[in-house]
Specification:
OB fold (Dihydrolipoamide Acetyltransferase, E2P), mainly beta, about 280 residues
Length: about 280
């Protein structure tokens, strides 16, 4: 994997960069049995009202069915290919079990075509990149991803490109996990996690380069409140170029923003947080 820089043949090309896709398997079409059509919402709910702004348009995509649970235990699987997924920043690995069943999983860094990986609940399972094990059998200090929050629920966190969590310690029935945000959180030792760091590590270094490329992704423009009229935003209006006028910046609906904490003081998960990211 690497970053591809473009020649400045146009103003938008100057400074633009993208992935070189060197790690992907060449000339590999997606596995048709693991594809579903993906309908775009335009940010609207079932009543047709916009509930999430700045969504719309974008290239047509198919949904890849990803196996986040890895619940076929103690059966080795072979990696057939590393593939691109338009719905996430990470890459996918297509694996095949001895019974010819195929699955998509998140592709960690250093996973190669032809590798053999396994998901296991056994203590003697190998600590190897791509293997999915219980937290109680993974040594402290190991980098992990695709981490379960609750037993049997499937991986929910640490799934984006280049991310990883680390097992800091084990105490009673919990492991202390340092999240990518820096937060240290207690998670049950009976939860599963996959060994290794997520692939496509250099994704965060990509420069979009132009507004149109965001539109390909289905992201519409964001307009500053200061540039609006008073009827549209609390920051709007004024003669000429003026300040926002509020004692603190707010959303279009008057709620404080930029650092305003919305987390409840008595949230159920508070006892599981050992150290906050702040």
């Amino acid at each position: 994997m690497g970053i591809r820089n473009f020649r400045p043949t146009t103003p938008s090309r100057r400074g633009m960069s993208g992935a070189d896709f060197a790690e992907l398997t060449k000339h590999k079409e997606p596995e048709k049995s693991l594809l579903l059509p993906l309908k775009k919402t335009g940010g609207r709910n079932v009543h047709g009202r916009i509930t999430t702004r700045h969504i719309g348009g974008g290239h047509k995509q198919m949904l890849r069915i990803v196996d986040f649970k890895r619940d076929i235990y103690d059966v080795p699987a072979k990696v057939l290919s590393i593939e691109y997924d338009p719905n996430r920043s990470a890459r996918l690995a297509l694996i095949e079990y001895p019974d010819k069943q195929k699955k998509y999983i998140l592709a960690p860094a250093e996973l190669k075509v032809g590798d053999s990986i396994i998901s296991s609940n056994q203590k003697d399972a190998e600590i190897k990149t791509g293997n999915c094990l219980l937290l109680r059998f993974i040594p402290s200090g190991t980098l992990i991803h695709n981490l379960e929050m609750n037993k049997g629920q499937g991986g929910q966190i640490v799934r984006s490109a280049g991310s990883s969590a680390q097992i800091m310690a084990k105490e009673n029935d919990f492991a202390h996990i340092r999240m990518p945000s820096g937060e240290v959180r207690k998670i049950s030792l009976d939860c599963h996690a996959t060994i290794g760091q997520m692939g496509n590590i250099e994704h965060e270094a990509i420069s979009i380069g132009k507004a149109g490329r965001k539109r390909w992704m289905g992201i519409r423009p964001t307009v500053r409140g200061l540039a609006m009229n008073p009827v549209d935003h609390p920051h709007g209006g004024g003669e000429g170029k003026s300040g926002q006028g509020n004692p603190h910046p707010v959303t279009p609906w008057g709620k404080p923003t930029k650092g305003y904490r919305t987390r409840k003081d008595k949230r159920y998960s508070n006892p599981f947080i050992v150290k906050r990211r702040t």
